[in-house]
């Protein structure tokens, strides 16, 4: 009678089933990955993962197999590496709504303290692409606000906002860049956000972006482009938001179209 390996119980039903290719053989690294998910659940947030050597002995696999399994879990945000310290169970991802609410409001609803670090605050010419989105001339002035986004002091994203300068001539003088821009526009300037078009895609951060966010350039990022307009239908804002794919997810509610 053949002996079963520590991973044999994964070859039938359960999460590993999703990783079985058509030929029916479970990739070794994937079986280890599923076992590690159980280990992560037992350890809990912030706990250190056993060493590579311990995991190799536990699962009877090579270091290369363990590294591939752990690497995927790091990319997915289940684990986090700390240089010179080890690998740890990551906290749950932050959830942001795909709706006309600010970054600040989205985090506060989850009991998380939002924050921002100012990188750029300037006036500049719109240029061709931005002008087309905001329906202005390429040489028209826009306000540019670039900030690193924080969640409980952890860097999680980089946001670059462009606003029509003719709509907000005193904004750079009155606005505190560490506060919510949407709250200032709404409460201080009476701006009404009537609608927006948003596009989401996955990208890799540029070297500059990775340095500002404090992340690995090879880590997948979520990139969001938004153009917002008021009740008159005229666009006044374009936002480019880059978020760490291992720390944020997005949710929206859909209704049936008749």
From TrEMBL:
Coiled coil: none annotated. Keywords: DNA-binding, Transcription, Transcription regulation. Residues 24-92 form the HTH gntR-type domain. GO terms for molecular function: DNA binding; DNA-binding transcription factor activity. CDD domains: WHTH_GntR. One of its GO terms (biological process) is negative regulation of DNA-templated transcription. It comes from the Bacteria. This is GntR family transcriptional regulator.
